[in-house]
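PROTEIN–LIGAND DATA SHEET

This sheet pairs a single protein chain with one bound small molecule, S-adenosylmethionine, given as SMILES. Inputs appear in the order they were entered. The predicted three-dimensional arrangement of chain and ligand is reported afterwards as a token string under its own label.
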Amino acid sequence: MVKLNIAEINKTYWNGDVYEPSDDTFLLVDVLQQHAEAWVNKWPRCCLELGSGSGYVIASLALLLRQLAGPSFGWPAAHPRSCQLLAVDQSPAAVEATRTTLQAHKVTEVDVLAANLLGPLMGRLRGSVDVMVFNPPYVPTPDEEVKRGGIASAWAGGYRGRRVIDQVLPLLPELLSPRGELFMVTVTENDPQGIIEEMLGFGFQGRIAATRQADEETLQILHLWRQPPGLHHGAAAAGQ
Ligand SMILES: C[S@@+](CC[C@H](N)C(=O)[O-])C[C@H]1O[C@@H](n2cnc3c(N)ncnc32)[C@H](O)[C@@H]1O
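PREDICTION REPORTED AS:
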């Protein structure tokens, strides 16, 4: 197995208005790094990060794909494979930080946009996202915190930490391509196993790809993908 490079923390930018890369960020990137070789045979043509913050995750994803697209994985240097990469954040400070981090890594192949969730992008992206990554505001808080704005919107997730997550999950059937997949950070209070069961009803199956104990929370990376055609709703849950 070839060791694939990811973004460097000393080339990653954030300030007091932008989420500092933390255990959740690093766990998400670890899972992307471990999973990346699967994309050699299932090349993603469109990748999206929702809530890019400092840009550490999208810079890592772009670097992983750049390595997979080249000669080490059998693709001629003169004709590397390409992928459309998009990063979205509702915070102007985060958009700026993502752009700065990408520049510091000499990554030019990512479009960075300011939008609330997917805003006006939904029409353009419908059915085309092959890989989506999302480290949401997942911390359980009073619901009022979710709309407080500022840095609180990087972490405040309202009731069970699900207020933003539950706006995004119903978008997946329309947003993801037929082979599309989502990698999303959760904590135990978000009930990731319950999310997997709920998403069966939308034609998805899933697994907990990683778990890590951090200071005050137990983190998971939830990996969701579409059920193969013909698999009956609920059949995967029942192990059929
Ligand atoms: C937990 S931080 C993750 C930042 C970065 N991806 C990381 O892993 O370090 C969540 C990010 O989502 C953004 N965000 C929160 N609500 C959003 C929304 N409704 N639309 C777009 N971005 C949102 C925040 O501004 C913040 O940058």
